[in-house]
Amino acid sequence: MAAHSTSQQTYIDKFNPKDYLQTYYVAGEGMLFGEWTDFALQNLHETFTKGGVRGDTLLDFGTGPTIYQLISACEVFDKIIVSDFLEQNRAEFRKWLNKDPDAFDWTHIIKCVCELEGNREDWEKKATKLRSKVKEVLKCDALKRNPYDPIVVPPVDCLLSCLCLEAPCKDIKSYCEVLKNFQSLIKPGGHLLILSGLNATFYYVGKTYFSSMTTKKEELEMAFKEAGYEIEKAVYTPRIDKSKMDVGDYDTHYFIHARKPK
Questions:
Q1: Residue 187's closest CA among 59, 77, 75, 97?
Q2: CA angle 105, 200, 37 (to 5 degrees)
Q3: 9 burial class (0-12, 13-18, 19+ CB within 10 angstroms)?
Q4: What is the pTM of this model?
């Protein structure tokens, strides 16, 4: 269906974070609630516990208006920097950060993470801890050599990107270029964690169509290697629930944990 790549201007003009959260993350209804959130939260929990990924700073690239990808990380990083291309997404994220009454309610997801950690009762403490660890909310642009230009972000211990790169990248070559640009943002021996969907061509937010770069497992892993990373772990899980393929048509969840050589 996607014959073109959705422009940055279309995102600026038409991406509505409230519609996005409503479509994808409402408990029991959202397309990504359940299968996707379970996949993401489980892999991140394992990575930040027995996987041993920890350090001073985690940089989240393409945060969007969501917080779920950061909940486990707040236990093992002193500082979290979040970033997104869209001002409306950064504003929506800040609503949660500042406890705005209009913010999206992530309680159900925070409780899921607490349950993974064996302590469902302390979800409010978890939310407070995550808020305390987020130190900056920055603008980023995946298509720039320095995605944070004119700011120079010092290299971090871990760069995380969740459901992001298939939007700005039109093909696997541009995806590989973004991964190469990430090298300067990661310390030697540092970690790169990417979670997303394979073989998608589009997704909808409200009634607005957005294209997605189509990726297959083999070319995806080749892009990481060509960009100079060592893949530590790659997980692929087929999408079982196909009831909302008209909202977003990816068919597989993926998680790749790679490292920048020392």
A1: 59
A2: 30
A3: exposed
A4: 0.96
Cα 198–42–216 angle (5° rounding)?
15
User: What is the number of alpha carbons within 13 Å of residue 89 lying toward its C-beta?
Assistant: 24
Q: Cite the DSSP H helix spans in the chain.
A: 8-14, 17-24, 35-48, 87-97, 107-116, 123-133, 172-182, 217-226
Which letter does DSSP use for residue 248 in this model? B
124-139 residue pLDDT tens: 999 999 999 999 999 9
- What DSSP line would sit under 157-174, residue for residue? EEEEEES-TTTT-SSHHH
| Cβ contact 69:195 at 8 Å | yes
Q: Check if the beta carbon of residue 182 is closer than 8 Å to that of residue 159.
A: yes
Q: What is the largest CA-CA distance in the chain?
A: 48
Q: How many CB atoms lie within 10 A of CB 161?
A: 23
Q: What angle do CA 93, 13, 252 make, to 5 degrees?
A: 65
Q: Are strands 230-238 and 252-259 parallel, antiparallel or unpaired?
A: antiparallel
CA 140 – CA 89 distance, rounded (Å): 12
Q: How many residues does the chain have?
A: 262
CB burial of 40-50 (b: ≥16 within 10 Å; e: otherwise) equals: bbbbbbbbbee
Tracing tokens 């350090």 back to the chain, one arrives at 55
pLDDT in tens, 100-115: 999 999 999 999 999 9
